[in-house]
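hey can u check if this looks right to u? its 72 residues, i copy pasted from the old doc so theres a chance i mangled smth
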Amino acid sequence: MTVVSGTFHLGVGDTFDPTKGEAQPAGTYGAWPARMKRYVWVKGETVVQFHGDGPRMIAYMNPADDPRNVKK
């Protein structure tokens, strides 16, 4: 993961807690192991590039937040 612009906030665990996350400013890069539970959020426009070996999966803590579940 590379933060191209803006600020990407990153936390570890099963439960979203913005007081425990860390701000990753533009230029930050890193990686984490498969199946490691993380939560992320942004404030304002932020561009992030994800790279590495796949397959990749995004699991939403709250299924209602998953845009694939929106009924049209």
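The mean pLDDT is 89.
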